[in-house]
Amino acid sequence: ALPEIEKQGFGDLLDKVYQTGEPEFGYEILAKIDKNKDGNLVEGFYNFVYQPIFDLNKNVEGISVFGFEVTEQVKSREQIDKLYNEVQNSNAQLQNFASIASHDLQAPLRTITSYTQLLFKYSKDKFEPNELEFIDFIQNASKRMQELITNLLEYSKIGIEKNFYISHDLNEIMKIVLSDLQPLINENNVTVSCTDLPCLKTDKIQIIRLFQNIITNSIKYRSSNNPVITISAKKENDYYLFSILDNGIGINEKYYDKIFEIFQRLETDKNVEGTGIGLANCKKIVEQHGGKIWVESVEGEGSTFYFQLPV
Ligand code: ADP
Predict the structure, then answer these.
(1) Does ligand 1 come within 6 angstroms of the Cβ of 217?
(2) Of all atoms in ligand 1, which is nearest to the CA of residue 250?
(3) Closest CA to ligand 1's atom 12
């Protein structure tokens, strides 16, 4: 017997099976069925299959209909969709927040910086040496805060800004990166070598930023030896694996994940300037391109940063 279905279109389906003689299936229907056989109709989602039954002349003489209940599956799917939307929303809100907050923080900071400068310029002679030192502290802290805000702004923009994925010759991109870094390279007697790089669909500005961050780190976290940096790329299945090898101070294995988190710096580098955002940016950029990034290192010998970009 047919279940009592409270749904329009059910009859149309039966007609269709009668006419075509083909089975129909995969229909998820909200139906009320006396599933406990106690006279009460219980609402639930059912997946129905309509199978034609043929007489000896191969005419459809009836249709067997059976359904299996998928209420739980439908409910959990709805729950997943709901959670997914919530995560998307809160992510967007968070990015907006970081972007607006860092932007708005800049104005009061500029006021602090410029008035401290004026104070120093016009009232220098009235201050005791230790008071001048206090002003110096304020100026240094403001400068540092300015750096943090600028970097935070940059970080929050990745993901909000529209990306332009166009095919780029990464050899050309590397030329730009190395030429931008030329002063730092010369100053530190760095030897850089690079194998032939592929052409890939990438966002040029982001990829420049990615290479620049990693190579700059290889120079910043150098050992007493002159830095030697080797960049290479090789195709592995459906992605290219890039590696940037240095002979710097290296990273302890327990910090392999931590260094990619925002504002995370290691104790070893108190003397090296930085805000701990560079590698967080790199992670975001690589992930936006559909790849992943990680590091392997031997402390005291050097590090290799790896990242994948899809072909
Ligand atoms: P920053 O350089 O501003 O501190 P990053 O996010 O670029 O921030 O790097 C995070 C931390 O990872 C650095 O503070 C440093 O301790 C470590 N690190 C990054 N690159 C290297 C490297 N090539 N060799 C050794 N340590 C590194």
Answers:
(1) yes
(2) 25
(3) 259
Residues 6+ apart with CB under 8 A from 119: 135
CA distance 85 to 78: 11
Q: Three-class SS of residue 89?
A: helix
Q: Which of 144, 245, 259 to mutate to test the pocket of ligand 1 (most atoms within 8 A of CB)?
A: 259
Stronger pLDDT, 12 or 245, i.e. the higher one: 245
User: 292 near 307, Cβ under 8 Å?
Assistant: yes
Mean pLDDT rounded to a whole number for the chain: 89
pTM of the model: 0.70
**pLDDT tier at 234, thresholds 50, 70, 90:** very high
7 has pLDDT over 60: no
Judge whether 210 and 284 are in contact, CB under 8 Å.
no
Q: 276-299 burial string, b = 16+ CB within 10 Å, else e?
A: bbbbbbbbbbbeebebebebebee
Whether residue 246 has its Cβ less than 6 Å from ligand 1: yes
User: What span, in angstroms and rounded, lies between the C-alpha atoms of 309 and 202?
Assistant: 9
Mutate to test the pocket of ligand 1, among 255, 279, 286, 304 (most ligand atoms within 8 A of CB): 279
Residue 297: phi and psi, rounded to 5, are -155, 155
